[in-house]
Amino acid sequence: MAEENFEQLLDDLRNKKIDHFVITPENFQQFQPIFHSYAYRSQIEGEAQRGGKVIYQLRER
Domain of life here (predicted)? Predict the structure, then answer.
């Protein structure tokens, strides 16, 4: 998955075009710096799953 796709996933999630997305262990190292520099990351939470997958979704208010 290309880096620009990660930012697009974050934007789509924030704009409610999608309700969640999954990052696999293979993509986590590439995704993490993009997530940490994302301006609206405080609105998004990740939930770790077995096997190293992380499901990202909007925080409930």
Answer: Bacteria
**pTM reported for the whole predicted model:** 0.88
Tokens of 59: 């925080």
Structure tokens at 7: 């930012």
Q: Which of 45, 8, 5, 34 is nearest to 55 (CA)?
A: 45
Mean pLDDT by 10 residues, the chain (61 residues): 82 97 96 97 97 95 71
Encoded tokens for 49:
């799953």
- Residue 57's pLDDT is 98
Amino acid type, 44: I
